[in-house]
Amino acid sequence: MSRALQHHYPHRLPPPLTPTSPLDFTHRIPFKELKLSSETLGSGSFGTVYKGRWRGRHVAVKQFRTREEINSFVIEVEQLSKVKHPNIVTLYGASTFSDNHYLIMEYAEGGSLNHLLHECRHQQYDLRHACSWAMQTARGVAYLHELRPKPIMHRDLKPANLLLFSRGKILKICDFGTACTVKTHMTNNTGSASYMAPEVFATSSYLESGDVFSWSIIFWETLARRHPYSQQYSNPYQILWRVKQEGTRPSELENCPIIIWRLITKSWNKEPKARPTMREVANEMEFIYSLTERSSPSAISPTNNYIDIRNTDPKLKDQQPFPICSHFTGQSQQLLSFSGKNQQFLTVSSPSTIAKKELYNHSRALVHRLEMLSKRAEVLEESAKCDMKKSAMDVLEELVELKKQTESKKKELEQQKCSTFQNYINQNGC
Fold first, then answer.
1. What is the CATH number of domain 22-106?
2. Which residues are designated catalytic?
């Protein structure tokens, strides 16, 4: 650039920014601002999570050390930096110190869903909580699948990667170390065996339907409050083989509401194309959750719509967990009733017998109403078809009548023409 041009344009435009490091995707946090504690929140195949403090708040700090873990770090930073959703954990930033890499994320005071299901044996929760967690998971994953231009597939959905906030009211998805865009070539055997779709184990050309399969297993586990295959198979490869070759799935839940069981079985269908999309799952779960709220109005009061996860009464330490779906009263159509020898209706404050009866009657009324609406829709559909057929016949008859009138008019005109010509000849003596 000449000196004259430099005088008029002293500042050049900066070149376009292109990420040259994983830290360029997110906020860089100086390591000296972090205060790590020795308390371990969790660990897995890609990194260990510690509790820490950053700028006066509690945070979860995920540490990556090995080469494989650092590769996971790169993926997780890139994917989390793209997303922002109420049901996906927030990434505050990343940091490095020596050869270690760190992700700084929001801290989940409620721990993971897996911790609640299998380690907090004394903690009770009800069907509303289970449906709410399943609904929030579906919403978060549907958001990932609908990202453009490249949708994201999580590929490792399981209760350990679902975190609880606000004393169990809010659920957020974490651990994006195995996530990838749908158009990226995928490696097989990604994910945990119990939650892995059969096509994930068998091939590398699967799509978002693999996450839908994982969601269905998680929902089943939340309702049953036991591991999907723990009593049948102990070897992960045995689970994968049975799921793929024999079509093995978790056992049917006794008297499970038909509307829930149909959604679960559709979502773990062996054919990926036969499964619903995650958005369809989220929409259906919103409807199911609305039924649970209507069936128990007291459940939505501010004092009992959460669970006290932090309760660690030593007297209840060895108490067996409460399965939610193992004993439903009445027929499977009855949506929200529970009973059994050692089973209560699992609310934070258990309702009385009268409230149970009212709930049972209200559930029957809801189911009856749904059946009536379904029949009414069928009648309207048939009526619409009949009306369309009748309208088509009427139009056809009108066309035939119009054609007849046209032919008659044509003949009349021909006759008039001949008559006029004959009169002309007679008058002129031709």
1. 3.30.200.20
2. 156
